[in-house]
Amino acid sequence: MASPHTDTRSPSITTGTDFLLHLLIGGTALVVGGSSLAWLFGNTANLLVGHDPWAAYRPTDALLCPEELWPSLPGTALITACHVLPTVVLLAAGVGGVKWWLRHRRSGSGLAGPRDLAALLPRRSAARAIDLRPGLKGCKPRRVPADDRGVLLGSLKPGGEEVRSSWEDVLLAIMAPRSGKTSGLAIPAILRAPGPVLLTSNKAAKDAFTTTLTARSEVGEVWTLDPQQIAHTPRTMWWDILADARDLAGARRLAGHFVTASVNESSANDFWSTAAANTLTALFLAASTSGRPITDVLSWLASPADRTPVDLLHDAGLESVAAQLHGTVAGAVETRDGIFETARQYAACLLDPGIAAWVTPPKSMRKVREFRPQEFATGRDTLFLLSKDGGGSASAIIAAAADAVMRAAVIQAERRGGRLDPPLLAILDEAANVCKIQDLPDLYSHLGSRGVIPVTILQSYRQGVRVWGEAGMDALWSAATIKLIGSGVDDADFADKLSRLVGDHDVRTLSVSSSSSGKSSSVSMRQQRVLAADAIRALPKGSALLLATGVRPALLDLRPWYRQPDAARHSAASARATAEITERALRKSPRHGDFGTVA
């Protein structure tokens, strides 16, 4: 007697019987439908030429031998009515049915399909854009230009339909280096932006800066804040870094940018950092309210006993701040010197006159114009914020400028009915290196509702934790309504977290049992991870996992700029801009290279 044996087949085998059944049903429907259409069109043709009306319903004869039903019809009319027209109708119906099925079917892989992502696909995203943007009111959804519908995220796998976020979504992208974060997300978003654009970066040549510089200059004015000469840009602009520090809250935010740029979240709240931040706040406030440049703060830091800032605060009516600063200055010498030395380290980038020149009033306004964030927010200009990362960088200035622009945009939105139109796109590339805005997770909760669309790009989840801490990064992750995860996720804990977020799906398993009485089969269901952690780590370059609020996770193909129809033009522009950077670098004297001089 043979022992029972169970053979568990792969899920692909379980579809064989269903496929044959569907094939049989489809073939029957095709024959019945084709023959019925042949009978209908044959009778219609017979009636049109004036012969006897409807023949009896004999669909088989209508398809195979139509001349017996309509002997008076010419051969050409018979072939057209009974063969050509039914074939055309069936093909059109088949193509339409396949399109409908692809759009509305649920993916068997457990990932989102077109039906799940309908809100991010062209038709619904166009309708949403009309609701969010007053300038599009009265426009029919099908007439809304693609770039006015939202930020291009990629193409849906499979199907190839464009997937776009709306103009109230806030985005977080976590992508390893060379995984397409710049070419597939940042650059396409900048090139297609309908309104003002802000970009932070630590690179210039052959990157987002050179690729988009020419295209954005055709849309509006291009402003480049390049204090460390990443692109060797002549200083034709300056920004008043103390403009928003005329009250205590603004001065505290500015001091926070200098602290955050210098320390990690773990040490940002120790005694020395907190005391230094309070001292910088008081000094920035004293300089701003008295109309002095930020470079005066360096002089006050160098001479703790100087009473000038205390007197200026008294003159401005800021008695409490003056008393606090006086208390620090009059305290124990060791403590005072420690606080001021810490503050000096935080503001050290301003010691470089080439850096300080970008944020202090120039002697002559003939060639250097002032950048005003409130005007920028309501136009179509572009602001490139460039800085090196690491020690001695100007990242505090870059973070302060980006923060000032986004906050000015929110104020302008409130004055214009609640939303900016067109929206402002803020691409915070290398955010954890050159744009450490401490309360960015809190800003995410309301920026989108004001038409200010931040796109924060990180190389890893842990990189964000280093800047904002566990709680802060969790808050940023939760507040982002659109999350894109690219290839190269090597953090095992984060990959497992993503795997659990994507979830499980049902998989059919066919079991075949053999015994002395024969074979029997049964189908059972089991739960399986949609994407295991190793599959997330092995995502191919050029693809991304999309996590959108209220939508099942989906896999997207990124749409890099160099695969678009106008790639040749942008590539040539990037080459010219890169050559100009090289030429400007070579023109500088190695001995007297004043990186802040006016062209």
Automatic annotation (TrEMBL):
PANTHER family: CONJUGATIVE TRANSFER: DNA TRANSPORT (PTHR37937). CDD domains: TrwB_TraG_TraD_VirD4 (cd01127). This is TraM recognition domain-containing protein. InterPro entries: P-loop_NTPase, T4SS-coupling_protein, TraG-D_C. GO terms for cellular component: plasma membrane. It is a multi-pass membrane protein. Residues 423-541 form the TraD/TraG TraM recognition site domain. Keywords: Cell membrane, Membrane, Transmembrane, Transmembrane helix. It is found in: Cell membrane. The chain crosses the membrane at residues 19-41.
